[in-house]
Amino acid sequence: MDISGNWQLACSLFEHDIPMQIPGNFEDALLAAGVINDPYVSNNSSELRKFEFADFTLTKKFELQNFDGAKYRLTFDGIDGIAEVYLNGIKLGCCRNTFVPHTFELQSELAEQNELVIVFKSCVEEMKKYPLRSDMYSSYNFNAETARFRRPAHIWGWDIFPRMALGGIFYGVTLEKVAESSIEEFDLVTLALDKNNAKMRLAYKVDVPTLADGNYSISITGTCADSRFEASSVLRSYCGFIHFTLADAKLWWPRRYGNAELYDVVITLRRGSEVLDEKRFSFGVRTCSLIAKPMTGDGAEPDFQFIINNRKIRVFGTNHVPLDSLHSHSKTRREEFFRLACDCGVDMLRIWGGGVYEPDEFYELCDRNGILVWQDFMMGCAIYPQDDEFKNVIAEESASVIKRLRRHCSIVLWAGDNECDVAPSWGNLNIAPQSNAITRKILPDICHRFDISRPYLPSSPWCSPEAQAAAPAGTDPTLLAPEQHLWGPRDYFKSDFYRNNKASFLSEFGYHGAPDVKSIEEFIPEGYRWGWENDICRHHASNPFLPDDTQLNFRITLMYDQVREFFGSSVPDTLRDFVTASQIVQAEALKFIIELFRMRKKCSGLLWWNLQDGWPQFSDAVVDFYGRKKLAFHILKRLHKKLLLTLSESNAWHRSVMAANDSNERISGSYTVTEFSTKNIISQGSFALEPDTISELDTFKVCTTQKELYLIEAVTSSGERLFNHYLAGYPQFDYNTVAGTYFNSMFEELEK
Question: Which of 229, 225, 207 has the alpha carbon at shortest distance from 216?
């Protein structure tokens, strides 16, 4: 029984109850009732501040027809905040963790006519109950709540999200009758692969009245096209294992390496011939592991690399942030997000630790589309408390999350947190990352206990003891790590910061790009759209407390500076042209960094930041909140192909034609490089690249400082046409030439 739908919301700050739809956020109800203005527009989200100090009460009356006194299970998915739950005046319990379902077993509490009441306490006021801890820290001076309460970190304010912290119920409320017999837990894993022969294991736990009569059995079947497996066992215990071998298995591969084959699996619990319970799901047969050395080395081979089905792979993807600041909206945006991800050609999503664990539907789409998932546990940019209360909360949360998600083949890594290893250095605190018992002891123990099929990484980036010992005083030890978040000064993208980096895997990097003019017109009022050094633009950059808080005001200036670096005195003086200029700079920056690292054998992965905004803003995303694509999106589509052809930076008055084949197949064909200004063919030839090959196809003489646009075209033996470009020379570029001539003509010629 679905108990979502229309509820009633009460709060001391408004006189009458107002309707609220569940799933939903309190902000939605306030907006629908006219209590607040649209929090996505202007700086209206600042109006929400006064509600953070208030309690909210949700009420729902429902009828349970023909109630027979049986046992029922009441489940809340995504109840966000500190909430006390009452049924017919009886307190069922308290919910304090957004990231896990909250379930209550019911019997005597129920009747035919029922009233469900949930009282949400103010988290801001709740902070008064906790003593000040010297060893706690949060990255911004306005979001200390993020380190104490198990809610999405970004809701308290972030550089990419507004402060919208009122809460609600993200996913829904259900009531179901408790079955007498059920499959309580299961874990299906691929233990090993010998070529295409898979050694499999099903672990299970059942709940039945008694096994004394010995008439219970459990079975598993799986089908994928013409491949099938089947195994069964008589139940001798409430927990058990079934081992079996799947011959000539159809393997699950990430996008560029093969098909994302999925088996339709059914686990069945029987008593005699009677079916008592079934679990149906899709499952990909694959193994995964990770090479993760404590420090980057000087060798050519990667020091951080994923291995899928016993094969080392390279991944090119993006970081994933919540699809909407108000998480109850995310469902309506999910389908379009995956269209964008597949269109752009990403093969890995890193689920950022400042957001949420996504619902199963999200990971099912990753499974079906061959998109790998790097899953952070939900902690980010803070030093979290090390008291027993908090440790127990994390242990219970992580166990719940792992048991829910471990069946998804797309997930290939559990990561302890986002940037918590480097947080002490931001606060100038002498706290060693390895003293974090949550990521060094609790999480690895929980991962080992409930999921033997995936690797675990303590933090991203991981600051190993070896890197700490080797780093010079006053420097960031993670810059010695093989996996890095490469942000730095964010100056000109061809600076030494990017060129001299030796990381094997960039799990975060990005560059600013303004959203489409039509989008800006939707969330910035007229009169504030140009000039941009105003509080409304800063609010969407994102600064939740204005005008006094300057901690995040730099992001608008940063976008200006990046455009000015590239275009100098020809920086446009109109909004439309500035947006174009900003998007060109963003596209060229991402292109340079990706090509620079993809042409290095030592690099095994690049995850840029990020695909789509979760609210209207000025950011590093390549698709804005309204779904309008920036120029970088179209460029990235080319860079994620199995085969990439590009040009190197000049050296000794020569430039090289470079090619990389990151796939399971041999790729051959022909190519041409054309000089845009003269239409002369500068280089042409054929290529035949084995899998995992980076090759120099040709060199030609250039003048290093000459500004020129080169057009690169290739045709493979299978008939696929590939395009790329290379903008040579150094700033400052003339805006009219680059935007009006180069880019317009380039797209006309290469994509007509």
Answer: 207
